[in-house]
Design goal:
Layout (H helix, E strand, L loop, with lengths): L1 H12 L12 E8 L6 E5 L2 E5 L4 E3 L10 E7 L2 E7 L8
Parallel strand pairs: 4-6
Antiparallel strand pairs: 1-2, 1-5, 2-3, 5-6
């Protein structure tokens, strides 16, 4: 049981964590799903990530709702910023 708990804990910590070569990276994707509030699991471009109170949300190019293009910024493997973007950013 202890092994299972450890495995679950470790696997939950690797969601949305890029490889070491991409620890500080950005990507563009379509916002597919988000919680009602800010904190929780977001799905962007097929990737799941945990957003916390420390994650900055920017809606300069429109509201962060399902179907919009967003940019996700990582810092040290954590989601630091999610920003709405022009649709053409996701069509590259």
């Amino acid at each position: 049981m202890k092994r299972l708990i450890t495995l679950l804990f470790l696997s939950s910590g690797i969601l949305w964590v890029p490889s070491n070569s991409q620890a500080d990276d950005d990507f563009y994707g379509i916002l597919e799903k988000r919680p009602e509030g800010k904190v929780g699991t977001w799905v962007i471009g097929g990737r799941e990530g945990q957003v916390t109170e420390k994650t900055k949300l920017e809606e300069d190019d429109g509201p962060l709702v399902a179907g919009v293009c967003v940019e996700v910024d990582y810092e040290g493997g954590l989601v630091e910023d999610i920003e709405s973007e022009e649709p053409n950013q996701c069509r590259k």
